[in-house]
Design a protein that fits this description.
The protein has 291 residues and is mainly α. The protein has one domain. The protein contains 13 helices and no strands. Helix 1 packs antiparallel against helix 10, helix 2 crosses helix 10 and helix 4 packs antiparallel against helix 8.
Amino acid sequence: MLKGVLLGFACFAAYAISDAFVKSLHGSLPAYEAVFFGAVLMLTALPFIRQPDDRWIEVFKAQRPSLWWVRAMSGAICNIAAVMAFTALPMAEAFALIFLLPIFVTLLSVLFLKEHVGWRRWSAVIAGFVGVLVVLRPGFRELGAGHVAAMVCGLSGAVSVVALRMAGAHEKRISLYGAGVIGPLAAGFALMLPQFVWPDLHQWMLLAGYGLLAGFAGVLLMLATQNAPANRVAPTQYSQMLWAIGFGYWLFGDHLDWPMLIGIALILGSGLFTLVREGKVTPWWRRTKLV
């Protein structure tokens, strides 16, 4: 189990570094173009995720095609919104709002899966949204498209998770990963065609770091969930906040004030509690695969 948890930490470190690469573009390329090239490079992970009995066509199909499409479309929205959020906001602030994802999963699970949620998880939901108000401080600071994009990323990511839960535990990893890559690739390609901007050498290097590290993180996540239960690996994603604070300070000159730190702590605490609580009430083998 320890090996799986350590692989989880390595996976989310790779994801955080990937996000730092795309933030380093500083909006010099449209978000959908960055997502397209990132998705193309993420395809390099497919040979490592594919099992011996998998067929390549299963990248594009699943046992429940409608949910594959939901996963693909929500993945496209999530990826584009994430790039917009990291471009416009300090990394830690963007991550804090994106980490509303477990809270959104709780709400969507009540609506669509008719899941019973006890008072502890409802308290975590309320604490998470209080944290959002503390971070955003509407009326006291200027809010922009980056804040909306970060929350859209969290919500669309939650839609993807609920779709995977509805799909069940029998979908193949190659199909789950395929939906998460093909959706952003197709959406990015369609959006960038009218006004394509050819990247220069520096931009190509940043895009390569963004896409290849994201693909590598996907492989690490697969290995992590093979060596430890998903509910032990999932909390390691919150280590991304440490990377975000460090990168934000040392690379991008981000500065966080005390109210924002308090709000971030509330959001992270509520999300982490929700993950741990779900791990207690739902056997790990019935939970969604993480890739």
